[in-house]
Amino acid sequence: MSMILGVPVAVLSGQLLIGIINGAFYALLSLGLAVIFGLLKIINFAHGAMYMLGAMATVIMFDMLGLNYWVALFVAPVLVGVFGMLIEYFLLRRISGQDHIYSLLLTFGAALMIQGVLTNIYGVSGLRYAMPDAFKGGMNLGFMFLPYYRAWVIAIALVVCFGTWFMIEKTKLGAYLRAGTEDAQLMQGFGINVPLLVSLTYGFGVMLAAFAGVLAAPIYSVTPVMGSHILIVVFAVVVIGGMGSIAGAIVTGILMGIIEGLTKTFYPPASSAVIFLVMVVVLMFRPTGLFGKEA
């Protein structure tokens, strides 16, 4: 049996695959946080709840309405995105321009309320979502077995992440988004509906979290508390990449997933803390994060 540093290649490649999959989720969730903070300066502590709502909506639509995975993949993020826009309109808009701590506390309270309501309805034991028929099975690569659904998650996450980066950084729409949040009065003078632009931006960031939730439903147990478990890790990833950095969120999310997976192989006790250790080291030498810019 082939070995690398005393570890069988099959074991190492398996953990590396898990790390890349986790990194794909970290990248999607971190990207949503980076969009919301980078463009709107809102610390969205409800992001984990939106991830959970995406997964819960997928299960509920399947159980109650009989809708398949492909419908849920598009419908669930849109529904959660609209819900996020309502939160922005009725709650966050009221504290616009205030210190960041107000948005943090408000979204944290909203997340607790959402989690509490769904816990009372569904409990915390977890719901299962069957693997879509199109992705059952996998391929033998010789050194490892790659399930089709895992490959799909990695591929679609990369496509969505790159597409979001391209839209924000390279298109006229992205220029409007950046300009509308930096100088709202100027953009309104050109006839741009800035409040609507802000709502759509927040809704889009929330949609990315919900999209990650839909992808997670066939892999992980779907519970009302699943968002709170991953939120702190995702915030650490965003800090490492640089608050508000789109490219930083994507690259750091995937990188941290890989580092976490390799740590589980070579020193499992440190796997749950390695991301936070990296965060401490990065902040010591580069307080703005790897891709962050000085204020």
Automatic annotation (TrEMBL):
Domain of life where this protein originates: Bacteria
GO annotations of cellular component type: plasma membrane
Signal peptide feature range: none
Transmembrane segment boundaries: 12-35, 42-62, 68-92, 104-129, 149-168, 196-220, 226-259, 266-285
Molecular functions (GO terms): transmembrane transporter activity
Membrane topology summary: Multi-pass membrane protein
GO biological-process terms attached to the record: amino acid transport
Chief place of localization: membrane
Keywords: Amino-acid transport, Cell membrane, Membrane, Transmembrane, Transmembrane helix, Transport
Compartments reported by the entry: Cell inner membrane
CDD domains documented for this protein: TM_PBP1_LivH_like
Family label: Belongs to the binding-protein-dependent transport system permease family. LivHM subfamily.
Alphabetized PANTHER family for the sequence: ABC TRANSPORTER ATP-BINDING PROTEIN, BRANCHED-CHAIN AMINO ACID TRANSPORT SYSTEM PERMEASE PROTEIN LIVH
Protein name, UniProt field: Branched-chain amino acid ABC transporter permease
Originating species: Marinobacter profundi
